[in-house]
């Protein structure tokens, strides 16, 4: 029987070097995830990765083991030998499709060949190294907006009660052309990162949905929206009254934020009614 979950997560996976580089604090954070951050073992995992873009929502519906996609270039050879062969989650994939279609998303597709890209398997390899939890991946739509992805999350909220861990995997800032091996943090990256943190922890989710017009330095922090949209899905799946918490923060390469968040679903409060008896 599935144990209901209350939490969803957004993980900044940063660089693929996270898979081997022990100097990255985010690597140690993810390795301690199931002992210090989230001790409940989910029955399956749904990952929304910024590295899978489609025009319409698509789930990978894999029977057997997920393939490990090495979708990065000019990195150390040992990284191309890494494998994360978690079981597929075809029942979860079909449930995702069912929930999205019943919530008004008319076109939802299944892909029975695509495995896990590095936005999924790199963090999962650190979080759940045994690779014994079934994993399904969901795509993002870069031609859509934050609200579209927030609504995807809202549609998927029932999965939490079914013991599914929903993880958005992207990056709090993601401008690869701005990365430098120099000390300090770029001011624009800091400004956007601080705005995002303050907006999330104060529950200003509508501002986050409209970050392009609300946030400072939005276009330079995210020249493309692919790595922020997974956050919107995790945020939406937690519920509009969810409490956001910053659970890790570190920087690399002058402009790459590894800020990661937990969204804790809060019970809806019933307005108190005072009854006055004469």
Automatic annotation (TrEMBL):
<dbReference type="Pfam" id="PF02900">
    <property type="entry name" value="LigB"/>
</dbReference>
<dbReference type="InterPro" id="IPR014436">
    <property type="entry name" value="Extradiol_dOase_DODA"/>
</dbReference>
<comment type="similarity">
    <text>Belongs to the DODA-type extradiol aromatic ring-opening dioxygenase family.</text>
</comment>
<dbReference type="GO" id="GO:0016702">
    <property type="term" value="F:oxidoreductase activity, acting on single donors with incorporation of molecular oxygen, incorporation of two atoms of oxygen"/>
</dbReference>
<keyword id="KW-0862">Zinc</keyword>
<keyword id="KW-0560">Oxidoreductase</keyword>
<keyword id="KW-0479">Metal-binding</keyword>
<feature type="domain" description="Extradiol ring-cleavage dioxygenase class III enzyme subunit B">
    <location>
        <begin position="8"/>
        <end position="263"/>
    </location>
</feature>
<dbReference type="InterPro" id="IPR004183">
    <property type="entry name" value="Xdiol_dOase_suB"/>
</dbReference>
<dbReference type="GO" id="GO:0008270">
    <property type="term" value="F:zinc ion binding"/>
</dbReference>
<dbReference type="GO" id="GO:0008198">
    <property type="term" value="F:ferrous iron binding"/>
</dbReference>
<protein>
    <recommendedName>
        <fullName>Extradiol ring-cleavage dioxygenase class III enzyme subunit B domain-containing protein</fullName>
    </recommendedName>
</protein>
